[in-house]
Amino acid sequence: MTAEHLPADDEQWWLQLIEQQCGVVHRRDIPPEYVRHAVREVRARRWRRIRRDVFVLHNGPLTEDQRRWAALKAAPPGSALSGLTAASIDGLKGFIDETVHITMPCGSRRLNIDGVTEHFSRFLSSSDVHPLRSPTRTRLPRSLLDAASWADTERFARAVILAGVQQAIVSPSQLRDALPSRGPCLRHELITETIDDAEGGIASVPEQEFAGIVRRIGAPEPTRQHVLRHRDGRYYLDADWEAYELSVEVDGRGHMVHTQWEQDLERANEIIINNRRLLRFTSYSVRHRPEIVGATLLRALMSRGWSG
After folding, report:
1. C-alpha distances in angstroms, 228 versus 13, 225, 238?
2. Which residues 6+ apart lie within 8 Å of 273 measured at CB?
3. 20-29: per-residue pLDDT in tens?
4. For the chain, which terminal residue's Cβ has fewer other Cβ atoms within 10 angstroms, N or C?
5. Is the pLDDT of residue 170 over 80?
6. What is the pLDDT of residue 307?
7. Is residue 107 part of a domain?
8. Residues 208, 242: one domain?
9. Record's superkingdom (predicted)?
10. How many domains does the chain have?
11. Domain span including residue 290
12. Is residue 190 predicted with pLDDT exceeding 50?
């Protein structure tokens, strides 16, 4: 990676560039004075060619950062790293995706680079892409929305949105504002629902749907918002069957922030101290897996003495 063939100023610029780009360059990045040397490095296989005009300045395996830069350098203007690739750079934790995701303008040719997945969009404006950050990538709200839309399962899609809010790297309002500008979106309804869940604004909706499940399985009506008194205050249970010493909580968020999680554990302990059993369901399960929720509740009630 030395640049002894360059004037001093160009040498400093070149070294800074290859450091910033993790040793990945496009032909147009190479100073004219350095072209002959670069050709010799490629022919001697000391530099590795990724595509026709994209090179990495060694001949070994590419690191994750180098694969990202290689995808960007090979992509046409207007492209940006996206999805989980961009979100992980901007701080999203807990998700492993070895694929490099990049969004390119519609009509672009595929890159055909191993480990790179291309996406195409007519809706990738300056409001969707960081103007200054390097490597070029979509803004975090757009990155999370893309990742949720491209997810293999609905559960994974929800987890991405909820984790972004839980980790305090994006707010529900930012996600909600970014959604219309994305254009057509797979799982639009689910994503909107999950944003609302992350904000906690529709907690009563899954509780109402849970009430419908109770009626469908013919279970006795529970006490709603049952008060559990504690020396530090009151806890409210979403549903409680006092005769069977069974309580149910419907969680609006799939992943709780640490402080809320601590409070939930304390409340669960109090429920057990009061000789009750606690079932917990996510709002997603109540909405989209009601048969499983109903079967679980049925078994729990019958194990506690309900004749059915």
Report:
1. 67, 9, 11
2. none
3. 999 999 988 8
4. C
5. yes
6. 87
7. yes
8. yes
9. Bacteria
10. 3
11. 204-303
12. yes
Residue pair 106/78 in contact (Cβ under 8 Å)? The answer is: no
Tokens in use for 157? 């899609």
d(CA 127, CA 43): 42
Write out the two tokens for 66: 């180098």
190 falls within a domain? yes
User: Is residue 255, in this structure, part of any structural domain at all?
Assistant: yes
- 135 cis-preceded (ω within 30 degrees of 0): yes
Q: How far is CA 203 from the centre of its chain?
A: 22
Looking at this protein, which amino acid is placed at residue 295? A
Whether the predicted model's global pTM rises above the 0.85 cut? no
What strand order describes the sheet that includes 223-230? 223-230, 233-241, 246-251, 277-282
Q: Looking at the domain assignment, is residue 256 inside a domain?
A: yes
- Structural contact between residues 154 and 190, judged by C-beta atoms closer than 8 angstroms: yes
Half-sphere exposure of 223 (CA within 13 A, CB side): 14
